[in-house]
Amino acid sequence: MDGSFEFPLYVCLDDGTVIQIETADRILYHLEAIDIENDEYLFWDAAARPLKVAIAKGKVSGLESTENKITLPHEFEKYAEQLGVSIDVSGKPEEVWAGLRKAEESRPRRPGLFSRLFGAAKTTF
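Above: the chain sequence. Below: its structure as tokens.
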């Protein structure tokens, strides 16, 4: 691995969700190697430097510098919009990430299938 990158990594998924990956050994826990090879994700390190995850024989073989068409603050802003919140994206990535996590946690959860099916039906005796 190239030692010039700092963890955690921030990853923009194809649906616009941003996730954080704490260590190199967790990359393939969260993401599929084939999708990484097909450039389906954008990656940044803890200092918001764009990077590419190199895959060899289905395993992470390194981190390389790259050019992303979108900056991490811009991606954070888009994700915040997706969450329906407005946050300041001018701080350090870990500060912005903390704000995003707080916004995610405060969102009302959608009722699950069983809640929708059985929760709405009220039985009276």
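The longest strand covers residues 50-56.
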